[in-house]
Amino acid sequence: MNNTDNKDSTDNVDSTDNKYNILRDMLSFINIEFTDINTLIGTEIDRDVFLMPFVIDKFKNYQNDLKKKGYKSSYLTSLQKNNIVKQQFPAINTMRQILKCNDLKLKPKNQSLGYNKSTGSKIIKRSFIITPLSVENL
Questions:
Q1: Confidence (pTM)
Q2: Distance from CA of residue 13 to its chain's centroid?
Q3: Strand 104-115 to 44-46 pairing
Q4: Which ranges of 1-138 does DSSP label H, i.e. alpha helix?
Q5: How far is it, in rounded angstroms, from Cα 23 to Cα 71?
Q6: Edge to edge, what strands does the sheet with 104-115 contain?
Q7: pLDDT in tens, 93-124
Q8: pLDDT tens, position by position, 14-53
Q9: What DSSP designation does 106 have?
Q10: Domain layout of the chain by residue ranges
């Protein structure tokens, strides 16, 4: 009975470690380092970081690794071959979907920085905060 329990817990640890390493790799693309999933909660990420072409390229190049590690393109639309063409913000979508697989989510945050004096338009800073995925949001 103990043998089976150890095997099951080892399988879960390997799976959790694999997800942890994938998340760590993806967040390193946008210069976010963490040691524990709990320290990641509350981290604010500027939206403009996800829109940079080199970040989009890194996420695109990482797609095959995600598929090899068990993520399916039928479940995660960000892993489909045509996601760069079909999706407006492919890096944001990929990060959002991988975080959801780890019971986390990207919560959007809009902060008003005032108005542009010459045009009168509102200046908005857009960012995301990593928060836990609660049961009621499923």
A1: 0.76
A2: 21
A3: unpaired
A4: 2-28, 37-40, 47-50, 53-61, 63-68, 83-86, 90-101
A5: 13
A6: 44-46, 122-132, 104-115
A7: 989 999 988 889 999 999 999 998 999 899 99
A8: 366 777 888 888 888 888 888 888 888 899 999 999 999 9
A9: E
A10: 2-137
